[in-house]
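Quarterly update from the structural biology core.
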Amino acid sequence: MLKNLSPLLSGALLSALDSMDDGDLLTLVGSGYPEEEIVSPVIHLGEVTTEAAADAILSVVPLDCHDPAPIAFLDCTGTLDDLPDVAFAVNGIASDAELRRISMSRLELDEFVALARQSVVTVRVGSDAPPCAFLLRKGIC
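Predicted structure, tokenized:
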């Protein structure tokens, strides 16, 4: 184990994160996300929460500071006037990691899937309640 590094960051995941270029997308999905929609290499983190995975990833991956909303999320709850708890938590984790307020955009299914298909890597967690998926745009800032 490495000092001050989340045990969720396996060698395979660290290698995938390190190979990402500025502007590349990472998709973070729960087990309920359709397998047939994933075209990038998948790293399974097992039965961990989306929040735990986001915390581990964002501890080493900078978000794009030129994108006004470097995180996009797919909200399957269908409630447009309320932010799902998991999205609220991921937003807080990102803001804490970046030491700045991070904006997120909410995408419809078709738009989310189209962007997710451009993703360099997909991280799948075992938790999918409530169902939510995220796109994280890597930056150099």
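The helical segments are 11-19, 50-58, 85-98, 109-116.
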